[in-house]
Queue: 3 jobs
Job 1
Amino acid sequence: MPASPAPRVPVEERLFSLVLALLATESGLTKTEILSTVQGYRQRYSRTGDNANLERQFERDKDDIRELGIPLETIESPGAAGNNQTLRYRIPKGAYDLPADVTFSAEETTLLNLAAMVWREGSLSAESRRALLKLRSLGVAAEDPVLGYAPRVRVREAAFEPLRTALDRHHLVEFDYLKPGEHSARHRVVAPIALIQHRGRWLLHGEDRNAHGTRNFLLRRIVGPVAVTSRSYAPFPPEATATAQRELERIWTERTAEVLVEPGSDAETRLAKRRDTSREGDRLVLHYTDAELLAEELASYGPEVLVLAPESLREAVRDRLERTALAHG
């Protein structure tokens, strides 16, 4: 009977085990020693067979560790300079320890772990992974959480993960973007500045290299795959993200729509609970940032909603309802 495949070890566990192993050695470990002993590699290591795929995995993991800000060193063996097979790898503990004036209590560490649990693995940022990996590998104690269940944030947009990767690495991205009212998507080359969740929607705030200015791109309007290029760009200042968030809040505050809702309807229940909504009898005043998204939402309520103003929004909702009626005969 053929041998059963080795159990899959999650990437976070493999990187964590690698960091622990490289922290625990003073003289360093060779590639063979790492592949044959460290959790996540040893399960697939063959002492007599071909380990080329495993070696390539280790090379990628080295890059990931360095991108997380971990000081991975290589040490050449005396008399064997340039021989990659005799290189030894280690993480100098003194360069990796937390500063003496930075400490965390068990309760604080527990809260950090719970915060990380909110995000599924694919959405956890490089900064968060680095912080949690460092805390765990330094042996910082944590108390057992009192919560039996932790909330999770699932990012459904396929564009999120490649954009997050490009943002972490400061690489340009290319994608096709379909603007509201246009019938064909346009190709964009963008330097990502921040991924922002605004009113339940994910947006990419970035510098559009073709338009020579910053733009907000709604992730749901990205058509097809996002290509992360090898071209890098200089990181933007941290205040650029805050500026983008303030601008979105300004637009939200300034843009309002007046609608008439059917009393007791689902539309009244849901729309009345939107943030900053005010009402006058059966009339609701709604705030919004994207007119097309609001039009889609209002059209979904059918006859339960009548848009009074602005006229452009009223026409957008009417157009959607007419196209729906035409599609269904």
Note: The chain has four domains: 11-95, 98-151, 160-245, 255-327.
Job 2
Amino acid sequence: MNNQPSDSSPQATLTPSDSTSAAPLELTPWRVRIATLAVIIFPFLGIVVAPFLAWGWGFTWTDLGLMLGFYVLTTLGITVGFHRLFTHASFETPTFVKFVLGALGSMAIQGSLFDWVSMHRRHHQFSDTKDDPHSPCNEGKGILGVIRGAWHAHIGWFFKADPPNMARYIKDLRASRALQVVNTLFPVWIVLTLLLPALLGGLISWSWHGALTGLVWGGLVRLFIVHHVTWSVNSACHLWGRRPFPSADQSRNNFLFGILAMGEGWHNTHHAFPRSARHGLRWWEIDGSYGVIRLLSWLGLAWDIRLPAPEAIQKRNVR
């Protein structure tokens, strides 16, 4: 298939030199996979069951709309903004769009803009080695090591002290005054990500009860889902899925999180071509984040969109 989109804006193509090919690492022990699967599945089961138990008195169509709406907005803030734009410079966009994407990504409450980008750039530099900030493979042997690895990869890394001199990863972002403001206002984005769904819930239902359920479902529950889905890319997508491109890590393409994480689950492809704005390269690899980038380009708000050259994809693809 032709992986070159028909955008009217100039497109930059990526060649194999944009990432390093290497033999895959030794497979992760099955115990690590099972433990991580449990960490991911059990909370999701609770989220699936809870709306049915609360329907009518604690969960309504308005709450569902708020939860889904803020999920989409804040997830795109992470995937399109924090990840593809700020971390990998996969495309260019006006300053006001950068500000909006930075604010939405901050409202996912996964850390400030500068912290998130510096950590993710370090992840790519040291993927699945002892210096990777969220690999499941470096927490020791035995049952306790397996449990610690599963916890660390999915969420535990978030609470550990940052490695020294992380500022070296974000010199380009710190040069932007607008992005400095986004980063500094992180406490404000935390308040807004909870206040806005509560406010909308109250106004739509014209009740304090609607404000409370809006806060719970559009704010707290939605944040939990965003965190869980995004962090599953760190854990699940280094354990389960296909590896169509050889790499020095265990990154994998996972269909479930390709959908839920709006294209981020095509993780092996991303590690093969880290600067590509498009992660789902096949027609069936749905990539909602790339769809948003294409929409921005049609509106004249995105350009210099980086994509893998077709010959690079063919050369590196192993199956």
Note: The CA atoms of residues 134 and 156 lie 8 Å apart.
Job 3
Amino acid sequence: MTELKNDRFLRALLKQPVDRTPIWMMRQAGRYLPEYRASRANAGSFMDLCMNHEFACEVTLQPLDRYPGLDAAILFSDILTIPDAMNLGLYFETGEGPKFKKIVRTEADVAALPVVNTASDLSYVTKAVSTIRQELNGRVPLIGFSGSPWTLATYMVEGGSSKDFRHVKAMMYNQPEVMHELLNKLALSVIDYLNAQIQAGAQAVQIFDTWGGVLSHAAYQEFSLKYMQKIVDGLIREHEGRKVPVILFTKGAGQWLEMMADTGCDALGLDWTTDIGAARRRVGDQVTLQGNMDPNVLYAQPERIREEVASILASYGEGTGHVFNLGHGIHQFVDPEHAKAFIEAVVELSPAYHK
């Protein structure tokens, strides 16, 4: 086991003292980087990039090579690998995002779905994790991830991205027992998937609940949070002599932070609609908070980016328990130099809050 040279991110997730606020970016290996676009062109397609462990490793490391201030790497993959492994036929159309050849709309459709066995169905992901971990050589920790059951279900039932979620919500309200069967299969699959990533070398994991925020208060508890709780309860929480922190991120969930913290996770991701200082007053003694700058701030000039970083640091205040991040993934049209200004501002301004 290679010793970590920089464990700032893991320490902050466990609310241990750090010398400065750690930083990483959701979607940090992505289309805004010219080197990523070159790798994707060489790979042939997005899924070819994901399914080739050498390409996945190459693009995972690209932002770390460009931005030495980053404190974590995140596995390059896609949240829809699990539905793809359920034989739904994931494909991508330019300008339209992900789509599935098979759509899940009926009780029979749900009954036909297998629970994913990562070792046999998604071995390319665990191969990527072990390859990346080896290449990192202790440089920074590696984050594994999965989509949440509710978020995965939205894509499977809608057949791709959606603006109104009419099919998945119709199933939820008209056939709740069918929806629960789907979500349970997905939760079992996610548990297996994330545990396999941990065993392959992931040192922290994040559950992306991108679409939990479209639910009502009651529906969120029943159809999203319940299954994230099941996952948290089923995860390996210590590996290689270290705790494996778990981060929950529901976009649009500022009103549910207390319930999310009660799952037993180690950290909550915040989007930009929630003030991080207010969130800390509500749940900060219980969990670390990750976030939460509006990704669109990166379209501003570097001096304005720096002001926003300073504002968020001041809002959180002194002490550990903050991982700086964007409130969602970095956009493809962001100037890489603006991302550099963002990271450097956190590196330069945050030590004052950790004396």
Note: The mean pLDDT is 96.
